[in-house]
């Protein structure tokens, strides 16, 4: 894309077109059109609200795509008063790598996705707009028209909300369609969406940040507001340069005087966004905010010192010392390391930043910066230098402390709440590694000192310490393979893939009733904002866990559509715990991200569920394999069933176990009474149900004969009704089918014979074959055992008795009889196979022997020869 | 001149022989995956296909390889893994975890070992950090994050699988099988066990998650194949340095396999055990007899080795006993005959012995009672007799009930071979009534 390369070098002037419309509430002047004049180009570009635009981003080759929603002028923005609000689109390459596969197909080169992620900041500098572009909305199944395949046109089919790809909603689609023809100005829906997220709680926090920011930029020389490089819109990452106006010449003493509460309406919003979004953005925000004074002159540090001095009371004096001495040096990374040593909060990780702090890292990052930053002033606030950053962190903290002291107590109240949402967003972030890598850390660090202990960020940093030597912040991850797994080639392979138990079907056939019951139970609890327990039983492989997962999935979808209130879902499995009390640790970790010992976690959870009066969202807790949580005192079960009875808890507990009468059998009365009588039992699948399940999995795939499916369904239904067995047998049968057909290209159908072979292989007893294949002496020994049993009329004999029988038998047949040692060896061999049950061999001749197979089986096996 | 020539010949032979010994010993003692698989081609194909599907397609699987000891379970899996690693696409894309139920005696150790072998990020050097619970959740988290197409498949090989089933709650097995049955990191769980009743050991939830694939190795070959195996085990490889010697050696092996007495020895060995490991023991014993002066195996060597193999260990002990001790054992034998396997005590044995000495014996000196007691205790130390109850300090040793751990046939056989056995003792042994 040649036009964009040169863009930065060409000077562009942006000017409003038309008369402003004053927005009284936000103190903006709204415009409908902007005019971009490019140097050396005679015709100016006119861009109207509602048009699709390209926006300058990190990558010059692939600028961001967005739809212009609003154009306005904001006096409180420092370097760029011309602002725009946009609805973002994402390119496929911007989707985090590990989520890309969610699309399930290869995207087209010009395909973009409606970015349905309200938390993303949509307020950008209008001067980052490069130019108009054409975006065409397509239905999800439409193919991209070939004739339109030029680079200037983008296609949108799906929306992306950081979790999944969805088709565009019909209204949206219609709207986009309409836009294609004309350029209307109906962005209400989008605006409404963005407004929704605002919550008043954020405002104060934001102001603090803003004020601090302004103080930091104090002694910095200003850059020209029209500079093309500075205000690059980085929609995901660099909100800092946009979100925080740099007021020239603000003194440090100024922040306390509250930069006009009413006037900061719009900046407020920006911070709101950044606060609610994942930490990526937040930390970036701080980072870029911090980065500005990176090259500050020592006179600035002089200003820093007083604050540090005050810091002494809060933090260790050592830290302060270092700050004072090292800050002027600027390049040292030492501060950072020292800082981690300060006893800020217990939950901190030691030596976390050691890797990131290496000077070459900084250099690398510097190198990455575009070379356009030859002007010292602009460079200064782009270079991200850790040391300065942390210095600034410190200063900011100090400022906060100061302000808090200044009686603005409300801020303190709000900060923790901010963090709550933050920690949850961090959990989400754990699965979004691509972009966030190095950013999360400083954030959590910054805020930590201000948190109540219970609200701390999780001490485990997700997904970033690739090179870390500290095991405490290690990432649980198996390395990925170099070569992606190939797609199934033949029909049988495809069938095998679908028949694997792990393949999650779109719907669960044959469990509609159970699904409905569980769904309505949880839904009613969610709607009533109450708690409750449910006990689900059934033999293994009857779809208990799968059904509950399905219910939760549906409810989560409903929650997104605002049909039910949002809820938090936690899953624990008794079998995945080392010890029943560990369940507290797991619940707490999944709920808040904290780590604690079992006892402490139990206390924290009890406090959360029984004491907290603040309205919170409902928690749905799935406890799988409940019977494993049994303890002697049954305190774990008691607590699990007791919490939902508290009104404030809003806890729905779904428990799963195998036995129907578990509550009666192993639970004390007070526990089973709390569990209540909401029970459900999953019956083993019948043969017709199994048939239906297989049918639904093999939809449109003719790999099995109908009779074969019926056979396996009947067999399994008669044995156990375990769906897993059914699927495994079918899978094995496809393999047998493949083996038996020599030519791999025409494997043919899986027949009844194949299935019978698979069933035989899996269920036939191997004892008889084992006896048939044992050596002559072993067979003789078994014969002797039978003879001895027959003689004594007992089912047990000592080795000595059997030996004498054996010798007698051998003599009768005229064979050389074995020595005692050989017989012992034979006996222990048969014992290790468990054909015989034998006592430990230290009893020597006196060890007692029993058959582990029926005598008839042994006779049968021996006679066959 | 001629002596020098023979000397140099000897040196060459010595070198060759030491090489032969090295090659064959490695073959017998280490479980080197052989180039040939004996009678397990079907099973091998099943296993290798399964492993390939895991490695290439990322399909999770679980399988148990069941067979008696020495039937080649480990050999099979090693062979399969070797072939798998030879595939270029696979070798980079696979992780292996080897566990042994005898080493990882509980889940805690097993988890640390898994984490170490996967070298996850909570491993520093050889140490795994964190508590049991942390390790478990860490590992599960790690495995859960993966998916079929993008993560590296892991092959878990659980040797002595039955011992894992005895771990508390079978947590490890549950989790491994659960991963193999859910859309997580692709794994292949391969259990090796000799227990035929292994499925009964699994808890119902664990059992349900296990795919019920079983590969049985049953030593299902006949004698002709056994002879073939014998031959292949002894043949020197093509790349042996001294071609001439190798040729001669192989010729000799060929002759041996056709020799009647050798076949008899093999047949006898085969009848006792089809186990290849016992064949290795036999060949190893024969191989030790190969020296410079005796450079080629003979049928006699094998026969000797066979005799060593089938030796009764207790008969050997009896050979080393004194006449008094032999007499005591004979007395015990008679007591057993008379009282039909009822336990006896020292006093009874002493009385029986006294009867013999007083009435009949001419060659056996009448020992003092404490001397006889000493001999009796020596027998107990040799574990030829065993007390019924544990010996306590204050119990009277003379009256402690004992059982003889020798069978009548063993005693008679031992007596026949006993050097310088007095005739009257031998007579006494044949009949308890002969002294009347």
TrEMBL record, chain A:
Compositionally biased spans, kind Basic and acidic residues: 360-371
PROSITE patterns, per the entry: BAH
GO biological process terms on file: DNA replication initiation; mitotic DNA replication checkpoint signaling
Ranges where the BAH domain occurs: 45-171
Gene Ontology molecular function, alphabetical: ATP binding; ATP hydrolysis activity; chromatin binding; DNA replication origin binding; metal ion binding
One GO CC annotation: chromosome, telomeric region
Ranges of Basic residues composition bias in the record: 461-470
Keyword line: ATP-binding, DNA replication, DNA-binding, Magnesium, Metal-binding, Nucleotide-binding, Nucleus, Phosphoprotein
Family note: Belongs to the ORC1 family.
Protein name: Origin recognition complex subunit 1
Source species: Sciurus vulgaris
Lineage, uppermost ranks: Eukaryota, Metazoa, Chordata, Craniata, Vertebrata
TrEMBL record, chain B:
Chief location: nucleus
Superkingdom classification of source: Eukaryota
GO molecular function: ATP binding; DNA replication origin binding
Subcellular location: Nucleus
The keyword ATP-binding belongs to this UniProt entry's keyword annotation: yes
Record text on subunit structure and interactions: Component of ORC, a complex composed of at least 6 subunits: ORC1, ORC2, ORC3, ORC4, ORC5 and ORC6. ORC is regulated in a cell-cycle dependent manner. It is sequentially assembled at the exit from anaphase of mitosis and disassembled as cells enter S phase. Interacts with DBF4. Interacts with POLQ.
Protein role: Component of the origin recognition complex (ORC) that binds origins of replication.
Family designation: Belongs to the ORC4 family.
Protein's name according to its UniProt entry: Origin recognition complex subunit 4
Native source species: Sciurus vulgaris (Eurasian red squirrel)
């Amino acid at each position: 894309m040649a036009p964009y390369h040169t863009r930065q070098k060409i000077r562009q002037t942006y000017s409003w077109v038309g008369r402003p419309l004053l927005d009284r509430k936000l103190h903006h002047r709204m415009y409908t059109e902007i005019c971009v004049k490019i140097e050396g180009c005679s015709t100016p570009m006119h861009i109207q609200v509602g048009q699709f635009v390209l926006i300058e981003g990190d990558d010059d080759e692939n600028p961001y795509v967005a739809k212009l929603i609003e154009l306005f002028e904001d006096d409180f923005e420092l370097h760029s008063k011309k602002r725009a609000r946009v609805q973002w689109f994402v390119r496929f390459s911007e989707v985090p790598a590990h989520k890309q596969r969610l699309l399930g197909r290869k995207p087209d080169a010009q395909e973009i996705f409606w970015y349905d992620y309200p938390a993303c900041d949509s307020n950008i500098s209008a001067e980052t707009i490069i130019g108009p572009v054409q975006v065409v909305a397509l239905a999800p199944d439409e193919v991209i028209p070939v004739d339109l395949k030029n680079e200037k046109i983008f296609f949108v089919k799906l929306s992306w909300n950081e979790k999944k790809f969805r088709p565009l909603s019909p209204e949206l689609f219609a709207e986009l369609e309409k836009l294609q023809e004309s350029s209307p100005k109906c962005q209400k829906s989008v605006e409404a969406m963005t407004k929704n997220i605002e919550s008043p709680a954020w405002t104060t926090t934001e102001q603090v940040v803003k004020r601090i920011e302004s103080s930091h930029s104090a002694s910095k020389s200003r850059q020209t507001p029209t500079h093309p490089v500075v205000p690059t819109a980085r929609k995901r990452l660099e909100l800092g340069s946009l979100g925080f106006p740099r007021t020239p010449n603000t003194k440090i003493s100024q922040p306390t005087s509250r930069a006009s509460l009413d006037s900061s309406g719009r900046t407020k919003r920006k911070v709101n966004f950044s606060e609610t979004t994942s930490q990526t953005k937040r930390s970036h925000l701080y980072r870029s905010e911090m980065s500005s004074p990176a090259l500050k002159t020592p006179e600035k540090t002089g200003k820093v010192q007083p604050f540090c001095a005050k810091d002494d009371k809060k933090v260790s004096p050592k830290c302060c010392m270092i700050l004072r001495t090292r800050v002027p040096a600027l390049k040292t990374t030492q501060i950072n390391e020292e800082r981690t040593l300060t006893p800020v909060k217990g939950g901190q990780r030691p030596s976390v930043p050691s890797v990131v702090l290496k000077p070459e890292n900084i250099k690398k990052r510097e190198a990455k910066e575009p070379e356009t930053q030859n002007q010292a002033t602009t460079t200064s606030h782009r270079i991200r230098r850790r040391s300065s950053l942390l210095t600034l962190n410190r200063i900011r903290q100090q400022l906060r402390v100061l302000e808090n002291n200044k009686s603005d107590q409300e801020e303190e109240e709000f900060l923790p709440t901010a963090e709550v949402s933050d920690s949850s967003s961090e959990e989400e972030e754990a699965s979004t590694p691509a972009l966030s890598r190095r950013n999360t850390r400083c954030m959590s660090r910054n805020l930590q000192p201000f948190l109540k202990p219970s609200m701390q960020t999780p001490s485990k940093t997700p997904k970033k310490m690739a090179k870390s030597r500290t095991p405490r912040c290690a990432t649980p991850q198996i390395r990925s393979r170099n070569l992606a797994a190939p797609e199934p080639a033949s029909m049988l392979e495809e069938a095998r893939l679908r028949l694997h138990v792990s393949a999650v079907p779109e719907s669960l056939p044959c469990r509609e009733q159970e699904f409905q019951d569980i769904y309505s139970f949880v839904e009613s609890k969610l709607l009533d904002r109450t708690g409750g327990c449910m006990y689900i039983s059934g033999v293994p492989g009857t779809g208990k866990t799968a059904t509950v997962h399905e219910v939760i999935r549906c409810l989560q979808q409903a929650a997104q559509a605002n049909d039910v209130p949002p809820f938090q879902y936690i899953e624990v499995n008794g079998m995945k715990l080392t010890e029943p009390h560990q369940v507290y640790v797991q619940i707490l970790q999944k709920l808040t991200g904290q780590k604690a010992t079992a006892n402490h976690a139990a206390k924290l959870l009890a406090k959360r569920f029984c004491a907290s009066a603040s309205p919170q969202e409902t928690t749905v807790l799935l406890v799988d394999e409940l019977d494993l949580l049994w303890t002697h005192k049954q305190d774990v079960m008691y607590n699990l069933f007791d919490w939902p009875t508290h009104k404030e808890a809003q806890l729905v507990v779904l428990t799963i176990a195998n036995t129907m009468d578990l509550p009666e059998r192993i639970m004390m009365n007070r526990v089973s009474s709390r569990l209540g009588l909401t029970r459900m039992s999953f019956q083993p699948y019948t043969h017709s149900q199994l048939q239906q399940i297989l049918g639904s999995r093999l939809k449109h795939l003719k790999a099995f004969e109908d009779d074969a499916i019926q056979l396996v369904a009947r067999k399994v239904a008669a044995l156990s009704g375990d769906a897993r067995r059914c699927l495994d047998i079918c899978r094995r049968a496809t393999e047998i089918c493949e083996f038996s057909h020599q030519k791999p290209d025409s494997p043919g159908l899986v027949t009844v014979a194949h299935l019978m072979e698979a069933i035989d292989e899996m269920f036939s007893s191997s004892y008889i074959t084992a006896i048939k294949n044992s050596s002559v002496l072993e067979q003789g020994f078994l014969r002797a055992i039978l003879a001895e049993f027959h003689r004594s009329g007992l089912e047990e004999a000592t080795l000595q008795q059997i030996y004498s029988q054996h010798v007698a038998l051998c003599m009768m047949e005229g064979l050389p009889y074995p020595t005692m040692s050989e017989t012992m060896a034979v006996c222990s061999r048969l014992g290790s196979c468990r054909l015989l049950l034998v006592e430990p061999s230290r009893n020597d001749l006196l060890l007692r022997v029993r058959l582990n197979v029926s005598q008839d089986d042994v006779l049968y096996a021996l006679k066959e020869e | 001149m001629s002596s020098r020539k023979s000397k140099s010949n000897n040196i060459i032979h010595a070198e060759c022989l030491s090489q032969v010994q090295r090659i064959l010993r490695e073959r017998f003692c280490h479980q080197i995956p052989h180039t040939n698989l004996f009678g397990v081609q079907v099973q091998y194909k099943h296993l290798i296909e399964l492993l390939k599907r895991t490695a290439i397609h990322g399909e999770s699987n679980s399988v148990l390889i069941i067979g008696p000891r020495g039937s080649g379970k480990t050999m099979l899996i090693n062979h399969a893994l070797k072939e798998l690693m030879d595939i270029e696409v696979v070798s980079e894309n696979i992780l292996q975890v080897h566990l042994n139920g005898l080493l990882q005696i509980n889940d805690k150790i097993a988890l640390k070992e898994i984490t170490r072998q996967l070298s996850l990020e909570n491993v520093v050097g050889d140490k795994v950090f964190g508590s049991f619970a942390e390790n478990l959740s860490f590992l599960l988290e790690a495995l859960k994050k993966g998916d079929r197409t993008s993560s590296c498949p892991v092959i878990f090989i659980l040797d002595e699988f039955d011992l894992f089933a005895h771990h508390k709650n079978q947590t490890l097995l549950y989790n491994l099988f659960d991963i193999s049955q859910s859309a997580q990191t692709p794994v292949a769980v391969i259990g090796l066990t000799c227990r035929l009743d292994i499925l009964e050991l699994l808890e119902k939830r664990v059992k349900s998650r296990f795919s019920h694939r079983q590969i049985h190795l049953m030593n299902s070959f006949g004698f002709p194949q056994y002879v073939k195996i014998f031959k292949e085990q002894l043949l020197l490889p093509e790349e042996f340095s001294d071609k001439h010697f190798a040729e001669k050696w192989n010729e000799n092996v060929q002759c041996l396999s056709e020799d009647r007495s050798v076949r008899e020895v093999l047949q006898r060995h085969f009848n006792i055990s089809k186990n290849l490991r016992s064949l290795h023991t036999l060949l190893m014993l024969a191989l030790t007899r190969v020296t410079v002066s005796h450079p080629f195996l003979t049928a006699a060597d094998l026969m000797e080795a066979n005799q060593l193999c089938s030796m009764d260990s207790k008969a050997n002990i009896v050979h080393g006993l004194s006449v008094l001790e032999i007499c005591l054992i004979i007395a015990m034998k008679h007591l057993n005959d008379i009282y039909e396997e009822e336990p006896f005590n020292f006093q009874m044995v002493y009385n029986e012995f006294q009867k013999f000495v007083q009435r009949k014996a001419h060659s056996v000196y009448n020992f003092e009672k404490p001397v006889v007691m000493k001999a009796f205790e020596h027998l107990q130390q040799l574990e030829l007799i065993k007390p019924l109850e544990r010996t306590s300090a204050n119990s009277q040793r003379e009256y402690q009930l004992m059982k003889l751990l020798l069978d009548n046939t063993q005693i008679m056989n031992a007596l026949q071979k006993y050097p310088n056995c007095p005739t009257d003792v031998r007579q006494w042994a044949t009949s308890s009534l002969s002294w009347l």
